[in-house]
Amino acid sequence: MTKKIRQLGAKIGRLPVGEKNDITDVVGVRVGHVTIQHELDNDDYACTGVTAILPHGGSLFREKVTAASYVINGFGKTTGLVQVNELGVLESPIMLTNTFSVPAVTQGTLQYMLDTNEEIGDTTGTINIVVGECNDGHLNSIRRCVVRPEDAREAIQNATDQAVEEGAVGAGTGMIAFGYKGGIGSSSRIVVAEEQAYTLGSLVLSNFGNKNDFLGAHLFTSWKSNENAVEKSEDGSIIIVLATDAPLSDRQLLRVAKRAGIGLGRTGSHFGHGSGDIVIAFSTAQKVPHQTTAVTETRVQLREDHPIMNELFAAAAEATEEAIYHSLSQAVTTTGRKGRIVHAYPSQGIGE
Q: What is the top-level taxon of the source organism (predicted)?
């Protein structure tokens, strides 16, 4: 397995990273993939998948987490973000896939939640499923809609708190970043205030940018030329998922989510006209019960004017930037439809 870029000498930002340097450093967070990669008829090829991010291992419907989303540029086809921003909570896994598979993944995730929470839609209300997407149609025969509802269920069941598998896996199987193979990447940061440490993790689905936009080439010292880079007319997209154990309100999470755009910009993105750049952020610090008879509730949150907020802003920017680099450095050269090849970024010589 390819090493992460800082294991080879590169350094992004000033804050320390977590033990695994990915989103599962936030205790309780789990990530699972289903990768779909095989030939179809008529020169078509399935090169896609599903990724699931679970804030904790219990019932997400019965024990919701505080959440928010932020749209940097809205050329995207997500589901569920309207309610997330209205109520400030997340009650389902965050699911990632390709553009045309959002309906199938939504259906599969819904069925999983119905099967594991018998009260939904019966003795209580309905559920809000959150799905994000990027267009993998250069490598994947996207019109064939090969992702099935059961793939969403399997991705959820595959979710673990172990090191996140990155690169051309799950929803990232067919994605392209800066003309090279992109996909899933993740990183984490630790911030400390008054002897209390908090972790923030970022997971990205990178599918944006052209070769001339990339500002991170100085980290990849073996890079000699970009002659193997793919030229695409589309602007591409990215989904960024932020997790933290810091006690933040949904409004504070929105503020943190905005700073992920700084990390995205540092890599070379200018949030193109046709780019769907969307951030989904949640905090695991406090669970919000679905059923309660209480009229009021008490929650702890960080002070707005404490320096720790600026550290969390920096953590969101740094972790997102490094996660994007990991989506490149961990990916492998991939063949897709019509015999198209997208090369892995030549990153073996990452260094000073």
A: Bacteria
